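Recap from last week: sequence in, structure out.
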Amino acid sequence: MIAVANGGGALSRREFLKASGAAAGVLVIGAAIPRIALAQQRGGAEAAIGKTLDASEVDGFFAVHADGSVTLFSGKVDLGTGLRIAIPQMAAEELGIDVARIRIIEGDTGLTPDQGATAGSTGIMRGGVQIRQAAATAREALIGIAAQRLGRPAAELEAVNGEVRPRAGGAGLGFGELIGDKRFGLKLDAKAPLRDPSAYTMVGKPIKRPDVPAKVTGRHVYMQDFSVPGMLHGRVIRPSSVGAKLVSVDEASIRGIGNARVVRINDFVGVVADDEWDAIRAARALKATWTKEEGLVGDAGVRDWMRRGPFEADETLMKRGDARAALAAGKPLKASYYWPVQSHASMGPSCAVVDLRDGKAMVWSASQATHRLRGIVARLMQLPAEAVRVVYLDGAGCYGMNGHDDAAADAALLSRATGRPVRVQWMREDEHAWDPKGPPQLLDLEGTLTPDGRIGAWKTEMFLPRATASLPNVPLLGPAAAGIAQPMGISTGLISQNGNPPYAAPNVEVMVHWLKDAPLRPSNIRAPGKVANCFAVESFTDELAAAAGRDPVEFRLQGLGDARGIEVLKRTVALLGWQPRPSPAPTANGKGVAVGRGMAYMHYKNNETYVAVAMEVEVDRGSGAIRVKRLACAHDCGLVINADAVRAQIEGNLLQTLSRTLHEETKFDRSAVSSRDWSSYPILKFPEVPEMLIDVVDRPKEPPLGAGEAAATPVPAALANAVFDACGVRLRTAPFTRERVKAAMVAMATENKRKA
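Predicted structure tokens:
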């Protein structure tokens, strides 16, 4: 609503626009949305400064207050995945208190234990499970205290609704009475009994997320909204080519733009100003001269570069039987699959605020690893770790390290140089051009069939940038330009996982050629490596099924021995109404729209979530355009904490990866990234969103697994297989642009004519 001066009433936005269009006289009075001054002041948490941060202590995770309410301190953060409600649900269930009486503080390194980065689908599976065990330990302690005060055996008492009371009935004692504002002084007890899932009252329920109302009404404070008193606005000027050196800066070129001034540290150059628009204008106007570098391979040369190396090492990941001998003895099917460099493409450019003064640093960041960032800032600024505090605030979604940590490093450098708090807000071109990228992947596959139509031999050969080493071009941009040593690199994730077929085969070999470097600065991106690996493995499985003349689902089921995997596969195709039949082997000839179906399966990391995806697609033979009509997914992540949150995660996985498969590829030449906006780096649009059919399998007696990544992995293969079913072409290079689809159909038609 908009307050106006013509009587103090309120107009809707529509009414306001109508009034403005009619030249009505109105005075708009801007009222600032109330903002928290410091994230740690929420719920009186400032009083908890100095609490233990030991993840082995109950007090590291919980504070029970005199009024019976509970503050939960979580090292894992909610990146939009729903942890903000799911983890309190787990804690509330074990404590025996209503979830509404729990408030959660996330990712504040001054208040929360270090539970590792919120990555790899570990938020619930590790972070939540750890907090659940702390809650169970706390519950047993509360029952023990109550047993002494009530003079009754602990076995006769239970913790329910925020109090400990006799199981047989009668008055009890509230949690606040038992321990309010005192410390437990206990280590986590791995043997503290968990509640029976059959008696759950909160876990498994679709309790609403507490942050949604403020987000949909524009009142939620994101990192990009945050400010502190006396703050400067900063912008960093990047070179026109990767690896360029700064030759000169003309500081006079921004004279007269407010009080903007230049900060230069070796090749790091930025501007600061009291007003953000002045900082933006100064960054655009500043005359800086750089060397011209042409050390990149260019996006068109990545595939050849990956085959050439240089290589760091070869590694055999799996070896069963003798795949090479079996392949040599038969007539193997061969195929190569390529996944391109991709951006995180966060909708909101990265942002951070840093106040570095008097030998201390306060950092506000949307980093998914605030405790790791604390150590990085401490080393970069040559401060003791205890002098640095990082407070998490929601930012634009990343699902892997985007520019959040870079923005924090930029702000730290500018704050140290100016002696004032500095807010650095990247621009769109910064985010697309300079965020660390998901690395490319190239996979060569070979396979043979047995006489009865099963997989006889399988070989996967991967070409991948080194996954866990500190690559030369991984360090943060600002410190690298400033000439500050960075002993800690950023991992691209476990990108070599799931390169093996999940189906029975007597002869299997999976190996990887580790490349020493990467085409652009790499980092982890959602489901690191597994999206591309599943694309190759499940596409090739379909190729073998077609060669055997078998229905793709039946072909998989005959080789799948895991009951949970079989169930998600069957549930998925049931959603789509899949009727068994061999692929019809259509041709690329003809006009009009072809319709097809395809599916793919994944046991994530070979030991976590089970997921399958199937879809119906239309392919326009004339333009090469692909339209996904229906998309089905069955998902088994064990115990479901919050069904709505899991479903939302599945939907997000499916749509984001559909976007990555259809549209996304970072383009770059010998000098720099050229896809710097939404036009040159397109993503999925609302009209392209298909009907989604989702089946969440709940297994209350199984451990909870992750929902943040697994559903992403089968999407590209399911889509590629559906396109083959529709028009007979195999898509082995992502993204599946119109041009690539049309070129593949033309190539197939040409090949068919040659054979005829």
